[in-house]
Amino acid sequence: PTVSVVRDHLFKALECSYTDEEFDELCFEYGLELDDIVQEEVALGGRARQGVDGNVSADTDQSNAEKKEETVYKIDVPANRYDLLCLEGLAQALRVFKQVDPEPPRISLKPATHNMQVRPETAQIRPFVVCAVLRNVKLLPERYQSLIDLQEKLHQNICRRRALVAIGTHDLDKVEGPFSYEALPPQEIKFVPLAQDREFTGEELMTFYESDLQLKKYLPIIRDAPRYPVIYDAKRRVCSMPPIINGDHSKITLSTRNIFIECTATDRTKAKIVLNILVAAFSGYCDEPFSVEPVNVDYMSEDGSDVQSREVTPDVSPAEIGASIGFIRSLVGVHLEEGQMIDLLNRMMLKAERDGSKAGHLKILAPVMRSDILHACDVAEDVAVAYGFNNIEERIPSCFTIGAPQPLNELTDLLRREGLAQQGYTEVLTWVTVSHAENFTMLNRTDDQRNAVTLSNPKTLEFQECRLNLLPGVLKTLRENRNMGLPIRLFEVGDVVRLNPSTKIGAVNERHLCAVYCGTSAGFEVIKALLDHIMLMVGILPGSGDDPKTFRLDADGCEDDVLFPGRRADIVVNSSKIGIIGW
Hints:
The protein is an alpha+beta fold. The protein contains 14 helices and 28 strands. The strands form seven sheets. Strands 4, 5, 6, 7, 8, 11, 12, 13, 14, 15 and 16 form an eleven-stranded mixed sheet that branches. Strand 23 and strand 24 (about 505-520) form a beta hairpin. Helix 8 (about 325-330) crosses helix 10 (about 375-385) and helix 9 crosses helix 10 (about 375-385).
């Protein structure tokens, strides 16, 4: 993603000024790219003032937003560096990298004073919620805009257009805890949505926002659900109906001092990451910088009378990762000493030290904003970035290899080209996933539950399972081209997928070949001649079929009901069935 930051605001946060060329070099050193430098008229707090974002709103009109032409840097950041999606996170990272700050800010947790009660019916639609409170925040127009932009970037990135996570921010002084997260029939939800002046039900909002260019894309997430998620305060005032819109009552204004953040989600891990990114970036504007008040999230029992489990959010404890010094050296390609690695990792906001329990290993603590650090590979990448890719000496590899096709692919290409295409057959390429009916019912086959790989969440009925053979796809292609002149010769060579418990992933790919001849007569001799030609190409001749070098047709033993009885045969090689032929 590309992040737009006002140059002067960034330099103020960095407490240092750079020429455009110097900043471009700094971005490259940190693994970023300064994509463009433009002069733009920036409306500070403009979208917040307009109140159409669905998350944050101020009480003044867009026309009153302060507009000023500024130099804007457009910076490309890695897709997994969510902490760099705003000016605040970018400034934190570069300050530590340039050793202006010795370490990233440490977030301190204050005692929790608010509760969020989660009703059990939310499990049907959006089961998780995480919350936090920022106290005594000093908001300026540019900070408004940064908060708006960060939420939008997160929504489009890790939140997957609000399908996984939806962010809501509220003026805590306008609402009262404890809060309640519920799922109700849409006609029972009534509130004044953000930037509106009348009350709507949940159903009416679905219709009202169909013409809204920004919000209409989020409506399908919950539109057809029997219950919509909703967050109430203690006085049953609606704070938000995620992932669509917030209530107008709790909107944030320029005078807001205490901010309540809630993130509802279908993915708990993603929700925690999003909340941590928000509090790490904007808790620095509190009177007590980088202090956060957690919220007790209580998951209630079925009757709503007891707390089944409690989760305190946010969790700002660092993630601990171990990495072998030898492994890091092998990936980076430079023989770095232990102390050098520790210094380099500290510049990347990773606190590193020698692992006392394992010789030759480092123990790394990744702060909450570095959610991208998951494995020793990520640690090695950060070592390489801090060391500087341009500083890694180029050298000729110690071993030489010559690229060559995989034997299976080489054989496949030979059969496609000389075995089938040169015989007048047209190749087709069809989907690897098919419907259950195409795998079994339409082929007169029975599902024994032991072969087909089934998708757990298919988007449509057309793509429920991985194909077990190529015939359905070729026949569908033939059906769609039945108006073409006869004869029609089609073939496909591709992979099918079967369950196999003995493999690591529980399934295996098999390379199959399928050819179809369609003419005014059955043309068995045509397809049989093609079979003879293909078998001859791979060195298998007609014979007994009891050894690997001969094949035969077994009409009596063929019981595959995809073909007509008496007009079908098994293809047998080495006493094993390898295919069928017939009509």
